[in-house]
C-alpha cells in the first residue's frame, strides 16, 4: 500500500551523480589497502608485529627510565633549593637574634641611665628645696637684723 505523502526534504543536497562500478571498485581497493590486516597468518607479518610490539615495549621502558631520571633530578634540585633556603633563613634568624640582643642591651643601658638621671633629679630637687628653705629663713632673719 503506497501512501501519497509529501516527499521528505533533507537539509543536505542529494547527489545526482552516482558512482560508476569502476569508481566503486577503486574505493573498495583503497579502503582494503589502508586497513591493517588483523587476521594475517603470514610469519613475516607476525614477526614484524612481534618486533613492533617488542620495540614499543623497549622504547616505553627507555622513556620511563628517562622520565624517572628527570624526576629524580628535579627532586634533587628541589631538595637543594629547600636546603639552601633553610640555611639562608637560619642565618637571617641568627642575625636578627643578634640584633635583638644588642638592642635589648642598649635598651637596658638607656633604662639604667634614665633611672640614674631620675634619682639624680629627685636628689637635686630635694637639695634645691632645702636651699630654698634656708634662703627663705635667712631672708626672714634679714629684716629682723636691721
From TrEMBL:
Stored PANTHER family: BZIP DOMAIN-CONTAINING PROTEIN (PTHR45764:SF45), BZIP TRANSCRIPTION FACTOR 44 (PTHR45764)
Superkingdom to which the source organism belongs: Eukaryota
Residue ranges that the Swiss-Prot or TrEMBL entry lists as coiled coil: 72-99
PROSITE patterns reported in the protein's UniProt record: BZIP (PS50217), BZIP_BASIC (PS00036)
Protein known as: Basic leucine zipper 4
Domain BZIP intervals: 54-100
Localization, UniProt: Nucleus
Organism name: Sesamum radiatum
Main location: nucleus
Lineage: Eukaryota, Viridiplantae, Streptophyta, Embryophyta, Tracheophyta
A Pfam match: bZIP_1
GO MF annotations in UniProt: DNA-binding transcription factor activity; protein heterodimerization activity; transcription cis-regulatory region binding
One GO term of the biological process aspect: positive regulation of DNA-templated transcription
Keywords associated with the record: Coiled coil, DNA-binding, Nucleus, Transcription, Transcription regulation
Amino acid at each position: 500500500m503506497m501512501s501519497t505523502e509529501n516527499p521528505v526534504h533533507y537539509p543536505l543536497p542529494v547527489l545526482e551523480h552516482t558512482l560508476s562500478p569502476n569508481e566503486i571498485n577503486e574505493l573498495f581497493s583503497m579502503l582494503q589497502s589502508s586497513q591493517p590486516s588483523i587476521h594475517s597468518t603470514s610469519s613475516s607479518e607476525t614477526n614484524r608485529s612481534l618486533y613492533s610490539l617488542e620495540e614499543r615495549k623497549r622504547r616505553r621502558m627507555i622513556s620511563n627510565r628517562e622520565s624517572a631520571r628527570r624526576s629524580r633530578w628535579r627532586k634533587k634540585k628541589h631538595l637543594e633549593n629547600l636546603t639552601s633556603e633553610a640555611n639562608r633563613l637560619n642565618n637571617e634568624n641568627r642575625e636578627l637574634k643578634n640584633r635583638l640582643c644588642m638592642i635589648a642591651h642598649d635598651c637596658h643601658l638607656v633604662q639604667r641611665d634614665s633611672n640614674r638621671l631620675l634619682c639624680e633629679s629627685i636628689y637635686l630637687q630635694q637639695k634645691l628645696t632645702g636651699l630654698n628653705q634656708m634662703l627663705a629663713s635667712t631672708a626672714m632673719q634679714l629684716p629682723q637684723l636691721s
